[in-house]
Amino acid sequence: xxxxxxxLILIVFVLLILLVGGFFAYKLFKKQSNLSSxxxxxxxxxxxxxxxxxxxxxxxxxxxxxxxDISQLDTDQSSIDDGLNDQAVDVxxx
Length: 94
Hints:
Blueprint: H1 3-36, H2 56-84
């Protein structure tokens, strides 16, 4: 094989590798940016009541918010546990 043809094949091979690597890097970057902008993962802002308000009603309201958040956390944990404990189904069984 001629030296020029071998160099051309090498250049095409390197460009192909760069193109495929760039494609996968773009997909990974796009996936990460979608996760960070997902509204389901937004952080709560604000509080249940004024932090300097120590009345019984304000404390009760804050406790209700905390209880609600813990209940939601328990639900999320249960969903995660179910997903992690998912068993594969043997499709070859009849």
